[in-house]
Write a structure and sequence with these properties.
The complex is a heterodimer of chains A (526) and B (306). Chain A starts with a helix and ends with a strand. Chain A is globular and about 80 Å long. Chain A is built from 17 helices and 21 strands. The longest helix of chain A has 23 residues. In chain A, strand 6 and strand 7 form a beta hairpin. Chain A is of the alpha+beta class. Chain A is 33% helix and 23% strand. Chain B has 13 helices and no strands. Chain B is mainly alpha-helical and 306 residues long. Chain B is globular. Helix content of chain B is 80%, strand content 0%. Classes of the chains: A alpha+beta (526), B mainly alpha (306). At the A-B interface, helix 4, helix 7 and helix 14 of A face helix 2, helix 3, helix 5, helix 7 and helix 11 of B.
């Protein structure tokens, strides 16, 4: 009997503890979310601001015809379905009954107006889209998008946030000033923008899909990292974008905060000039790859804010293949030294630096500073690691604008440089074609490695002009195999997209692509 | 007087023209292509070239300079490369914020710096003097952004009295103004202290005391009045310092002023915007200096007679 009473009391107590939990579980509507970030948007016009500062805001206001998920699969969005008419022409059947925030109907004319505006404007957008040539209206709810040449990545390109459909009325009404008054069909509507201070969005109650839960979202600018983290602690803001790596562990151990992470799409790498002595020798590049201790960089410099790269592309990219670089070129100083000795590099004069035929093993290294998290520190660490195997490595830093100009110049006057690259449209073509096709040498494209391989050119051309996804995937796999053997890059880290938020903020998960910030499912548990 | 003003005006115009040329020259010689940077990784060489022509960056420096000055005379400061808006709009939107912050900083500087200096200068070696000199030393030595973060830590995070950053109310203004004024309060109080100490050693002070005036009256009327000139000079210089300090303070406290606009313009190599912000900073500095010079005449009639 006593036991029974005891059990009853325990169960009752447990119920009183658990029940409110059950009742309060589940998303609640309402509330305002304040997001702190280091810089303001330049514009909310998807044609002109294609950087994350603008895109994370307007990707909640305007929506593209298609969406790509984390595994690279394409889903209909404002289009109900699509049909590949020809390798250079795709037909989209639009969703009916969708309205813009200004009350106008979403239809084929709106899609055409959006694309026409982008095509006719010399915008950053155009370079992202590739050979898109026209958008033709078939009927009120059908359009065709045509490219000047057969173009495999048309679908993922149409799915980019920059291809979000804009209200034609807003374009007419605001003209050049549209970037400060964006109007789309998305789950949030633009409310106000006070430059360098904040941008506010409000929920679209007439949204055609699953409605957002938050009443309002404010993007607040706090440039100084220390001040931003303090504002999170005081409750002035609820979420922090781009937290400094050193703070992440601190917040992870604090129950008042939640840290949500996703493996990102940006690869930070050290690239080699393939035509410049001595990095023109693949063996030298391989030895240099083996001398870089990637795990140590990740642990000591990145402090868990990034992950080991699996290849030249991030796993969330369509066409990604695991290049198994850690297996191919594991960190091993002895092996690296042996490989160099094998190719005739010896320290013949005893000065600690390897030489061959009277020439020293000198690597000119163009460092990057203030562009990516911990970039300068990484360059210095890599320099030290190379010096350890007897390389004379001279590292030079310039301010980012100057570094960028050098990287764009026709001839790179360095053996090595450090750069980060995001596959913006989530299709392998975007990165591999621009960076490894021999027709894309700088300044035309971004092949500043001057990597040249007829087989790679052929595969990249073929994959670029095909609409067969499986076939393309296989071709990109083959390309990445050749690239891995060439050791043209030492990928150093794959970014993580990290959000630190107050524990009351729920279901706020970062997208792998740094340009997106899915706010629709987010809610606040008060 | 009128002639003097005309002379000063032309001198100011020449200084501004020379300054603008210097800024454009520096921007021309430092490495880094603003257009390539602005258009980003995905831009093609043709796009970079076409935008360069569009904004006139393909022309020689001297032509660009003459064009810039000509447009400036018509009130056109150009268009920001980055922000897609006329520079004048951006500058005039940010300038009032910087003036507000500078004015608040100046008010604190005057309200704290002068009394602190007088108290310690009148009684050198006293406990008040030691405390005030210690405060000055701290104010002079600590970097502005660090003071800002420390204040934020105590008053926002620990006590919750003031918001961490942003604008909108007097509470928002408090911490940035204190941060900004810290250096100026220190340097003004030191100047006031040494100036008043010097004056108090003069014969006429002893005379004033001898005829029976109270010490505080002597210090305030005879002493302070005569110590004003160097103090005013320091105040004038501090206005420039406050505007410069605003660059850091605005960044720490997310204050949307001219300083932050300028830092952003430097980072983005946004030439028109950078020229615009520097122009406004320089013009304000010249204007303040003019006011300081004119005020000498009011404080000390002997100056205007010369």
């Amino acid at each position: 009997m006593r036991m029974k009473i005891k059990a009853f009391v325990v169960i009752t107590l447990a119920m009183t503890l658990i029940l409110p939990g059950i009742v309060s579980a589940g998303p609640k509507a309402g509330g305002k979310l304040v997001i702190g970030r280091p810089s303001d948007a330049i514009s909310l016009d998807s044609n002109t601001d294609t950087t994350a500062t603008g895109a994370v805001v307007y990707s909640n206001i305007i929506e593209p015809l298609l969406r790509v998920d984390e595994s690279g699969n394409i889903h209909p969005h404002l289009a109900e379905r699509f049909e590949v008419v020809a390798p250079d022409r795709i037909r989209f059947f639009l969703r009916k009954g969708v309205k813009f925030h200004d009350g106008n109907d979403f239809n084929a004319q709106a899609v055409k107006a959006t694309f026409d505006r982008a095509i006719n404007q010399p915008a950053r957008w155009k370079a992202l889209f590739g050979p898109i040539a026209a958008c033709d209206v078939v009927d009120d709810y059908t359009v065709e998008i045509a490219t000047s040449v057969p173009y495999g990545p048309t679908l993922p390109s149409v799915a980019m946030c920059y291809c979000g459909i804009i209200s034609p009325d807003a374009i007419k009404k605001y003209g050049d000033d549209y970037g400060r008054h964006p109007v789309g069909t998305g789950p949030f509507m633009f409310k106000e923008w006070v430059s360098k201070d904040h941008i506010t969005l409000v929920r679209n109650d007439n949204y055609w899909g699953k409605k957002a839960l938050l009443d309002e979202v404010e993007f607040k600018v706090i440039p100084e990292a220390g001040a931003r983290m303090m504002a999170l602690r005081t409750g002035d803001i609820d979420v922090v974008l781009q937290p400094p790596p050193s703070e992440i562990a601190l917040f992870k151990n604090d129950s008042k905060f939640t840290v949500n992470e996703t493996m990102g799409m940006r690869i930070i790498y050290a690239g080699f000039h393939n035509e410049r002595f001595p990095t023109d020798d693949p063996k030298v590049r391989q030895a240099l790859s083996m001398a870089v201790n990637v795990p140590a960089i990740l642990e000591n410099l990145m402090e868990g804010s990034a992950v080991a790269p699996k290849g030249y592309l991030a796993p969330a990219v369509f066409g990604f293949a695991d290049m198994e670089l850690q297996k191919r070129y594991p960190y091993n100083v002895e092996k690296a030294k042996a490989l160099l000795a094998e190719t005739g590099w010896k320290d013949s004069d005893g000065d600690g630096i390897l030489d061959k035929n009277g020439k020293k093993l000198t690597i000119k290294f163009l460092g990057t500073k203030g562009r990516y998290p911990m970039d300068a520190e990484i360059c210095e660490a890599v320099q030290a690691m190379w010096q350890e195997i007897g390389v004379d490595c001279s590292l030079e830093f310039f301010e980012w604008a100057a570094t960028f100009s050098m990287l764009r110049a026709p001839e790179l006057d360095y053996n090595t440089y450090v750069l980060g690259w995001v596959t913006t449209n989530r299709d392998a073509d975007y990165s591999l074609y621009a960076m490894f096709h021999s027709g894309q040498f700088s300044p035309k494209g971004w092949n500043r490695n001057r990597f040249s391989d007829p087989k790679v050119d052929e595969l990249l051309d073929k994959a670029r002009s095909s609409q067969e996804r499986e076939e393309r995937k296989a071709m990109y796999g083959e390309v990445q195999d050749i690239l891995a053997a060439s050791a043209s890059w030492v990928p150093i880290y794959n970014t993580k997209e990290i959000l630190i938020m107050n524990a009351k903020v729920k279901d706020f998960v970062p997208d792998p692509l740094e340009y997106l910030l899915p706010l629709q499912p987010v809610w606040i548990d008060n | 007087m009128f002639q003097y003003l005309i002379k000063r005006f032309f001198a100011a115009v020449i200084v501004i023209l020379a300054m603008l040329f210097l800024v454009m020259l520096i921007l021309d010689v430092i490495p880094g292509d603003p257009v390539a940077l602005f258009l980003g990784e995905s831009a093609t060489e043709e796009m970079v070239q076409s935008v360069r022509v569009q904004i006139g960056l393909d022309k020689p420096l001297i032509i660009r300079y003459v064009q810039y000055v000509w447009r400036l005379l018509q009130g056109d400061m150009g268009r920001s490369l980055r922000e897609m808006a006329p520079v004048s709009h951006l500058v005039w939107a940010a300038f009032p914020n910087t003036i507000l912050l500078t004015a608040a900083g100046m008010a604190l500087t005057l309200l704290l710096g002068i009394p602190l200096g007088l108290l310690s200068g009148a009684r050198p070696g006293s406990i008040v003097d030691h405390i005030s000199r210690l405060i000055s030393l701290i104010g002079l030595c600590m970097p502005v952004f660090w003071i800002g973060l420390v204040l934020m830590f105590f008053f926002s995070l620990k006590l919750g009295w003031f918001p961490v950053g942003g604008t909108g109310s007097v509470a928002h203004l408090m911490l940035p103004a204190v941060t900004l004024a810290s250096y100026s309060v220190a340097s003004l109080s030191r100047m006031t202290r040494s100036s008043i100490m010097e004056v108090l050693g003069e014969d006429y002070i002893r005379t004033a005391r001898a005829k029976g005036l109270s010490f505080s009256r002597v210090v305030l009327k005879h002493g302070f009045g005569n110590a004003m000139i160097p103090i005013i000079t320091v105040i004038g210089m501090q206005v420039g310092h406050l505007m410069g300090g605003a660059i850091l303070t605005e960044t720490v406290f997310a204050w949307p002023g001219l300083g932050r606009l300028m830092v952003g313009a430097i980072m983005d190599r946004d030439y028109p915007l950078l020229q615009g912000t520097i122009l406004v900073f320089a013009a304000s500095y010249i204007f303040i200096n003019l006011l300081v010079d004119l005020s000498y005449g009011f404080i000390d009639p002997r100056v205007s007679e010369q």
